[in-house]
Design brief:
InterPro entries: Dimeric_a/b-barrel, DUF1330. This protein is of the alpha+beta class. The chain has one domain: Alpha-Beta Plaits (2-Layer Sandwich). The protein is built from three helices and four strands; from the N terminus they run βαββααβ. Strands 2-3-1-4 form a four-stranded antiparallel β-sheet. Helix 1 packs antiparallel against helix 3. The longest helix has 15 residues. The termini are close together.
Length: 97
């Protein structure tokens, strides 16, 4: 079942985050994920939102997501993401009627 990863980021060190971002695709493309959105100015239609960036990804299943997120390559570059931004990361299962 398809899973979606929703990431909400609050930048704390842009230089560190930019280092992560520069290396992201080299790692991401090795796995079966799809980057659906990476928006630094999403429209807030309801409520309040105190973050700076929204990222939406999909993976064929949770195993594919975990293979990426737990890979040594991603763990290495994610240090810069964690240094550069406070993140809320959600994993949501796709809908299967």
């Amino acid at each position: 079942m398809t899973v979606y990863v929703i990431v909400q980021l609050k930048m704390t060190d842009r230089a560190a985050y930019d280092r992560y971002q520069a290396r992201f695709f080299d790692v991401f493309r090795k796995f079966n994920g799809r980057l659906l959105s990476a928006d630094e100015h999403p429209a807030v239609l309801e409520g309040s939102w105190d973050r700076d960036k929204l990222v939406l990804m999909s993976f064929p299943d949770e195993a594919a997501f975990r293979a990426w997120s737990e890979s040594p390559e991603y763990v290495e570059i994610s240090r810069d993401r964690k240094a550069g931004a406070q993140g809320i990361v959600l994993l949501a299962k796709g809908f299967a009627p």
